[in-house]
Specification:
This protein is of the alpha+beta class. The chain has helices at 2-23, 25-45, 62-67, 77-92, 95-104, 227-236, 259-317, 324-359, 377-393, and strands at 50-56, 109-113, 123-124, 131-135, 141-143, 147-151, 156-170, 175-190, 194-197, 200-206, 220-224, 238-242, 250-256. The strands form three sheets. Strands 2, 3, 5, 6, 7, 8 and 11 form a seven-stranded antiparallel sheet that branches. Strands 1-13-12 form a three-stranded antiparallel sheet. A three-stranded antiparallel sheet has the order 4-10-9, with no helix packed on it. A hairpin with a 7-residue loop joins strand 12 (238-242) and strand 13. The N and C termini lie far apart (85 Å).
Length: 394
């Protein structure tokens, strides 16, 4: 009997809850509509972010491959390969590489067009804008200032800009040199005419690739950027990682809001990396060949001197054939001279390393020890560490 009473009590409680829930059903519908509307507004007006990726590799560093080719380092082959892969990952995500890519794409000047309605986003005009700004990098320029351009006719335009505190930047020295309060420009200029002031110097020309110039549209503007700050911004949008733990392939991803710029930047970035990697390999090969040629020249001179001395000795002492003991002594002397020559070559390689490091900040072109027949585990390890630190620095 008590069980039946408990069951009926539970049913009554459920019915009461349902009645209360149905009493505010309109609030539920209103929240649902508001949620869907908010989701639509966010998806409609938020800036889309595109991600593109590319897979490169395997990248074999000829220098470290030669370093690990000795029989003494067979057991370290897997460790060397892992280090090479990590070095490649570090070298792909390089500050200097990002700077070179930005410069080659002329991204120090950004072209934009503002939305003409509420909540419409600003769009970066890439790969081309209806006008081209040619900056004089030998002159200081105001960075992060919006220069609005309005086309008046086929030969002239108006330009306006204002900033309460404009930062002045020197592109040649890559440094901020000062600031200007209440920076302002409001004038009418001709296309291809150089605009000169103590705080800026540039010229604007119409883009010949555009069939018609948007007359009277005040939404177009451009900005000058600090090269290092822009490089950090682009570098933060790149991610580099191995495809998987056992693969020597590298996956490179890049994110951006302009799909054309995102694709073009990644393509140019990787092409610049491959070109620089090829240039480094060529430099290593040239330095190795030059070092070997120098050693061959010295050994040839030494052999010629030895041959001349032997011929003079035989001629002076009228020796046409040596005895067994003499032949043994000659062979022993030849082995000693060979060992002495090998030690001399190794000593010259050590001198070469000191001279190269003293004269060059970039050690990427250092000839490997194997080019001088130097088998020294400590030296090989030190050079591997030096190359790795140099790759991280660049």
């Amino acid at each position: 009997m008590a069980a039946n009473n408990d069951s009926q009590s539970d049913i009554l409680m459920i019915k009461e809850f349902i009645k209360k829930a149905l009493a505010i059903k309109y609030i539920y519908f209103l929240c649902l509509i508001l949620g869907l509307s908010l989701a639509y507004v966010v998806s409609k007006f938020s800036t889309p972010v595109y991600e593109v990726n590319s897979i490169i590799g395997p990248l074999e560093n000829e220098q470290t491959r030669i370093l690990g080719s000795s029989e003494l380092f067979r057991g370290l082959e897997a460790y060397t390969q892992a280090r090479n892969l990590q070095d490649d990952v570090n070298s792909v995500k390089s500050f200097s590489l990002a700077t070179s890519t930005i410069t080659s794409l002329n991204l120090e000047v950004g072209y934009f067009i503002e939305g003409n309605k509420l909540l419409q986003k600003t769009i970066q005009e890439f790969p081309r804008a209806p006008y081209v700004v040619n900056i004089d990098k030998s002159h200081i320029q105001p960075i992060n200032v919006k220069f609005y351009i309005q086309f008046l006719n086929a030969s002239s335009y108006s330009i306006k800009a204002f900033s309460e505190n404009a930062v002045l930047y020197n592109y040649v020295d890559n440094m901020v040199v000062g600031s200007r309060s209440n920076f302002k420009i409001d004038t009418i200029c001709k296309f291809n005419e150089t605009i000169t002031h103590s705080n800026y110097k540039f010229a604007v020309s119409a883009n010949p690739d555009f069939s018609s110039i948007p007359m009277g549209d005040p939404r177009h503007y451009f900005e000058f950027f600090h090269l290092d700050n822009l490089t950090k911004q682009y570098l933060s949008r790149i991610s580099v990682s191995p495809v998987n733990i056992r693969s020597s392939l590298i996956n490179v991803k890049f994110k951006g809001e302009n799909i054309d710029l995102t694709v073009e930047y990644l393509n140019r970035y990787l092409q610049t990396f491959l070109d620089e990697n090829l240039s480094k390999k060529n430099k290593i090969a040239v330095n190795t060949i030059n070092f070997i040629d120098a050693q061959i020249s010295e050994i040839s001179d030494s052999l010629l001197i030895s041959e001349t001395e032997l011929r003079d000795y035989r001629s002076t002492n009228q020796v046409t054939d040596l005895s067994y003991q003499g032949q043994q002594a000659l062979e022993q002397m030849a082995r000693i001279e060979s060992d002495l020559s090998s030690i001399s070559v190794q000593q010259r390689y050590y001198d070469y390393i000191l001279d190269y490091i003293g004269k060059n900040q970039d050690v990427a072109g250092l000839a490997p020890p194997s080019s001088a027949n130097v088998i020294d585990p400590i030296l090989n390890t030190l050079i591997l560490d030096l190359l790795e630190m140099n790759a991280e620095r660049s």
